[in-house]
Amino acid sequence: MRASEDDEAGLLRRIARADLAAFDELYRRTSPWLFLRLRRRCPDEQLAAEVLQDTYLTVWRAAGSFAAVAGGDGGATGWLWTIAARRLVDALRRQARRPETPAETLPVPAVPGADEEALAGAVGDEIGAALADLAPELRAVLRAMVLDGFTVRETSVLLGLPEGTVKSRARRARAALREALS
């Protein structure tokens, strides 16, 4: 475990005891990368900012649940991202239900993000090359389902696609990766 991850877990345990200084420190350390990650998933900067704010409000209220579950073994940034990702899906669902806001497909970023580069580097050159060869819409589904851990339904909301399309793209992506690696 990284030293900073351990530090962040400690901050969460202090936040569970209503330590405002620990909350300020956690926000200072984690909000820049969390906001950037949210922006990669959401083209609406205002919505991403609202999700960020809602995420930290949830952290303040629910830090005790992290402290109870973690028991000192870390996972603070993963827990934080899980909250933010769920809040983003909720916000996108609310936005899609508004009659004045059309539910459009979110654009796939043209420049690969750090998460895509990390995935390609973590899985090796051969798989990284196979991932790079996938169509952008297939990579977007894999990124949401594999890297972010979204369910089919959540990926559907996030990408503005029907669930059946998400399933078929995931199946096509797996088949393309299998073929590329055989």
UniProtKB/TrEMBL annotation:
Short name of one Pfam family: Sigma70_r2
Residues in RNA polymerase sigma-70 region domain copies: 26-98
One MF annotation (Gene Ontology) recorded for this entry: DNA binding
Keywords, alphabetical: Sigma factor, Transcription, Transcription regulation
Single biological process term from Gene Ontology: DNA-templated transcription initiation
InterPro entries xref list: RNA_pol_sigma-70-like, RNA_pol_sigma-70_dom, RNA_pol_sigma70_r2, RNA_pol_sigma70_r4_t2, RNA_pol_sigma_r2, RNA_pol_sigma_r3/r4-like, WH-like_DNA-bd_sf
Keyword Transcription regulation tagged: yes
Positions of the RNA polymerase sigma factor 70 region 4 type domain: 126-177
UniProt signal peptide: none
Family under the similarity heading: Belongs to the sigma-70 factor family. ECF subfamily.
Name the record gives this protein: RNA polymerase sigma-70 factor (ECF subfamily)
Organism: Catenuloplanes indicus
